[in-house]
Amino acid sequence: PTTFSPFFQAFFQIHMRMSFISITENQIDFFTPQTDLWTLK
Prior knowledge:
- The structure is a single chain.
- The protein is mostly helical.
- Helices cover 85% and strands 0% of the residues.
């Protein structure tokens, strides 16, 4: 458990941020410029 603690903690934080961003409407603001760039290309 001690070996997986830092990695699991970082992964959990990233997962929580991703889910929080997807829940919030800010996800659209974050991914809209990327989508526009991808669409232009």
